[in-house]
Amino acid sequence: MNAFPDVSKIRYEGPQSENPLAFRWYNPDELVEGKSMKDHLRFTVCYWHTFRGTGSDPFGGGTMLRPWDDGSESVANACNRARVAFEFFEKLDVPYYAFHDRDIAPEGKTLAESNANLDAVVAVLKEEQQRSGVKLLWGTANMFSNPRFMHGAATTCNVEVYAYAAAQVKKALEVTKELGGENYVFWGGREGYQNLFNTDMKREMDHLARFFHMAVDYAKEIGFKGQFLIEPKPKEPTKHQYDSDAAACLNFLRAYDLMDYFKLNIETNHATLAGHTMMHELEYAGMQGGLGSIDANTGDLMLGWDTDQFPTDYYLTTQIMLVLLKYGLAPGGVNFDAKVRRESFEPLDLFYAHIGGMDAFAKGLKVAAAIRADRALDKFVDDRYSSWNSDLGRKIESGAVNFKDLESYIMPKGDSAKNASGRQELIEHVLNRYLDKVK
Ligand code: XUL
Ligand code: CO
């Protein structure tokens, strides 16, 4: 393949480099906290935006220039596209990719035909994985594009659509296993509602849970050992998505006895649509043992929808890496669920976009590690909670006292001890100091 003749393998040149086809921060073998950047970050290219994105929007058609793609829905075109994708992964030096079933192979007239198309392309992907060493971070099934899924897939009102979705996921699990996928993702594409007047929410959520249990059972049956992930998103395409944020997802998993099998794939732009920061969503999932993987992108402060832009903000990546270093990421990864703007239609833009995103994360990793090495933030947190290290604090935390004991303790004092400053402005300044310091 030589779909990108102007690009050779992207290499690390250091922060001073002005070469847009080089890394300034991402140095795959450089050790951070004793582990290579490559192993910390586990960068992943997503197939749908990068190889299937057309640049179309509600106001106009596709704009992308993809000379290798003949635009047809043929298996031959899909196989050729797969080989081009691997040229891209290798030149970009990413260890992983991720896909939906319908990204990699065309949908046929019947499910059997779709499965056969999938098998043909999977054979090529397998060959390319073996040749290049690039691995599959996760697979998933697209159960939102085809009109049959207009009412949802695992939450549809149409029982035959539910059966179809189950069969589709069964095949997607087989394919993900065949390709050594390390995770399997469920993003609830149309699992939600537009209007509660026509919706039996309880029944739909029960069905969704049943669906997940069947997926877990089937994974066990075929020996698929990958981690299951669900991906929170509050809205779009439905008015309300059931997996609205990390808290809602974890509550759902716990209520339906699925906590042992699922973790969360947290996406930045979904977090912001939910009215949270990415750091909040990561911390919330992490503290409950539910942090699995991330979809790395960013939204636009001025726009209230899922713009899926490439992340370039060091402040954001530092926040993310602070949490990821705390809880760990593997077998998850940093998946660029991000698309180039429709005006950035040249193949070269795909490289610029990913290089910028990878560098932003590598810099964030270094800044976060520097902060952790000095315990620069921990010190503030330790101080802030130091009163809890007292005898009283320990008794409360261990459950040794009740309301009456606490009343007896505090009543004679007349009032509680004075509060100390939260130091927010100083802390924010300290964070900027580390951003300056890492060179
Ligand atoms: C949609 C989204 C999906 C999932 C995979 O907003 O993020 O691309 O990541 O289905
Ligand atoms: Co996503």
Topology of this protein?
Layout: E1 11-12, E2 22-23, E3 31-32, E4 35-36, H1 37-41, E5 43-46, H2 47-52, H3 75-92, E6 96-100, H4 101-104, H5 111-132, E7 135-140, H6 159-178, E8 183-187, E9 192-193, H7 201-222, E10 227-231, E11 240-241, H8 246-255, E12 262-267, H9 268-273, H10 278-287, E13 291-295, H11 314-327, E14 334-336, H12 347-373, H13 378-384, H14 391-397, H15 403-410, H16 424-437
Parallel strand pairs: 1-2, 5-6, 5-14, 6-7, 7-8, 8-10, 10-12, 12-13, 13-14
Antiparallel strand pairs: 3-4, 9-11
Helix pairs in contact: 3-5, 5-6, 6-7, 10-11, 11-12, 12-16
Shape assignment: globular
Number of separate helices: 16
Give the overall pLDDT as a whole number: 98
What is the total tally of β strands? Answer: 14
SSE order in H/E notation? EEEEHEHHEHHEHEEHEEHEHHEHEHHHHH
Report the β-strand fraction as a percent range: 5-15%
> Percent range for helical residues?
40-55%
Ions, cofactors and other ligands present here are: D-xylulose, cobalt (II) ion
What is the spatial order of strands in the main beta sheet? Answer: 5-6-7-8-10-12-13-14
Amino-to-carboxy terminus distance: 37 Å
Major pleated sheet: 8 strands, parallel, barrel
Rg calc? 24 Å
> In terms of per-residue confidence, which ranges show pLDDT below 50 for 5 or more consecutive residues?
none
Question: Which structural class should the secondary elements be placed in?
Answer: alpha/beta
